[in-house]
């Protein structure tokens, strides 16, 4: 079985920002599924095709942005006339910008079915987004001594456009929403080692009953099922990377491989081996 690659930026310490121009194609472009340890921000001028992110297909629309968090498995299937830009960067470049850092972290914490990683804009916003992307490309090709800073400022603007769109689409700022967001943050960080509901309730400072009520209201799943869902998503990513089921069992802190295989089949209806056959 071929390993699905994990792409890495060559020099994270330099906080490099790479920019790639996506030209129109002479034949259909279907990349191999892969994951990476940096963020990819796609700006599509002309749309066309499908972008599969964490096993979920998203339409490639004109004048839109797709934001792929580190660690997600994704596969691009662009059509002939599609074009645009992709900007590759490590989230640490925004470590001193609270709003953008929190936005990128939140996208990483929520799954793609819950917090859409694709952003569309009104007519005015579309024109601004494409103009910003064109500036980023221009700066990336220059020898300006402030090249990195100029690109970073424009990239910040693209992220702000996405953040604004996300907030307008998800306007709930209630206390329960705050608790739910805290839960998703904790779950993203701790699901490998903490699989009990009371751990998350204690961390947030509410009862397990209250946490369950909030999660069911927001996600139509109880806390236990949300924990299981997060574990299964990571298991699928690892299986898609060609890693053996036995190694994944220990990576996800199962007692033994048999326990992991049974859990995976109960949750998905197929064994880890069968999943790898379906997603080679």
Description:
The structure is a single chain. This protein has 280 residues and is α+β, with helices and mostly antiparallel strands. It folds into 2 domains: 6-169, Sandwich (Jelly Rolls); 175-278, Homeodomain-like (Arc Repressor Mutant, subunit A, Orthogonal Bundle). 48% of the residues lie in helices and 17% in strands. The chain is built from 10 helices and 11 strands. The strands form 3 sheets. The protein has a 5-stranded antiparallel sheet, covered by helices on one side. A 4-stranded antiparallel sheet has the order 3-9-6-7, with no helix packed on it. A hairpin with a 2-residue loop joins strand 6 (49-53) and strand 7. Helix 1 (98-109) packs across helix 4 (175-190) and helix 4 packs across helix 5. The radius of gyration is 20 Å and the shape is globular. The relative contact order is 0.11. Mean pLDDT is 90; it is low at 1-5.
